[in-house]
Design goal:
This protein is an alpha+beta fold. It is built from eleven helices and eleven strands. Helix 5 packs across helix 8 and helix 6 crosses helix 8.
């Protein structure tokens, strides 16, 4: 049986550190608790760094909980690879007060592949990337991966959708291209027209390659695929002193446009419910990407804070599995959380889910899928702190 040592856990923490998080904030703080007696299990306690949360852009902590779920799943995958089973002992609190207790058990044999998902490895964790550059549509690998993800989700989650029992509270749905494009533009304007949201986002953009944070966290100019000359100019402007001014000026310029968007969305919902036709065969001479939303049942009874956090952690674990599965088929994702963060676009997607799929659901993650056409830069990660047992 595998001995669960501090050295081994440090290696597993390094693999789990490749987990995705909103704005690459990396909010997790894991701590190893060795077994105190021969009969007691070793544990890992995961807390949240409040300085690495997004209180304005993520006021309900949903993105935070998804990120913590991704970390738990990454750690579980890396641990299973060396013969350690990870179980969730408890989930307490929510948001910055969230605490997760993981129970570790050394197994006599390494587990085999699940019937629901492939047996992912630490190599998969390191290979997965978000591509914010140009991608192209890939029909056959997408269809295979999408079907496999549906099978995996069929036995995951909690309460079933009304009339769609196999999904058990969560589902993966493709959104038509024109609905996606319309709402992505609307959601982007929403983010820019709210000074506090835009200013918070600016705090996590990394333009200055000389800064130590450039190689540790946030969204770098390389990952955003911003040319060096533009990044150099942005580095001079994106300072703590100027950010509030930039956010206020941008908000003032776009506020009238965002108001018109809200009024138009209200009228459309009362009339046509913002329905759209299927994705066109081509856009600008090339086929559009596939656009997906991971959704949860909106009819389930309201849960307490701890229970809701646990549900969203499970959603995060499944979201990572989906992305790893897509990566196994050579596909990458471009994440657009603004679509589910903007109230108008979230409602438009929910209306589409109800009208075209008969689902009372809310989007919790939104992303495009395709084949990378250029090299994808690696996102930064903070160094893993040494473990002292």
């Amino acid at each position: 049986m595998m001995a669960i040592t501090a050295t081994l856990i440090a290696e597993l923490f390094a693999h789990a550190a490749r987990s995705p998080s909103a704005h690459n904030t990396q909010p997790w703080i894991p701590r190893f608790a060795p077994a105190t007696t021969p009969r007691s299990p070793a544990e890992v306690h995961v807390a949240v760094d409040p300085a690495r949360t997004l209180p304005v852009g993520d006021p309900n902590s949903q993105d935070l909980h998804l990120a913590m779920g991704c970390w738990v799943e990454s750690f579980t995958i890396a641990a299973a690879e060396v013969g350690i089973h990870v179980g969730i002992g408890s989930v307490r609190g929510r948001g910055p007060a969230l605490e997760i207790r993981l129970v570790l058990t050394a197994l006599p044999d390494r587990p085999g592949a699940s019937d629901l998902w492939p047996r992912f490895t630490s190599a998969d964790l390191h290979h997965r990337q978000v591509d914010r550059g140009p991608m192209r549509r890939a029909e056959e690998p997408f269809a295979t991966a999408f079907a496999a993800a549906e099978r995996g989700l069929a036995a995951s989650g909690t309460a079933p959708f009304e009339g769609r029992a196999p999904t058990k509270g969560m589902a993966l749905v493709e959104v038509p291209h024109d609905l996606w494009e319309t709402n992505l533009a609307r959601a982007t304007r929403y983010s820019y027209s709210h000074a506090d949201i835009f200013t918070e986002t600016l705090e996590w953009l990394r333009f200055d390659r000389r800064a130590s944070s450039y190689a540790q966290d946030g969204l770098s100019a390389d990952c955003l695929q911003i040319p060096r000359t533009l990044a150099a100019v942005a580095a001079r402007l994106n300072t703590a002193r100027l950010r509030p001014w930039i956010g206020a000026l941008t908000s003032a310029a776009l506020a009238p446009v965002e108001l018109i968007d809200r009024l138009r969305a209200s009228v459309v919902r009362r009339t046509s419910r913002d329905r759209r036709s299927p994705a066109p065969a081509s856009t600008g001479g090339s086929a559009p990407l596939h656009h997906l939303v991971l959704v949860k049942d909106s009819t389930a009874p309201s849960a307490g804070a701890d229970s809701l956090a646990k549900q969203e952690i499970e959603l995060g674990r499944n979201l990572l599995r989906i992305w790893l599965l897509l990566d196994r088929h050579g596909l990458r994702v471009d994440v657009h959380s603004e679509i589910k963060d903007c109230p108008q676009t979230r409602s438009a997607v929910s209306d589409y889910l109800l009208d075209d799929h008969g689902m009372h659901a809310l989007p919790v993650a939104a992303f495009s899928v395709g084949l990378s056409t250029t090299a994808v830069p690696r996102s930064a990660r903070r160094p893993v702190e040494p473990i002292h047992s």
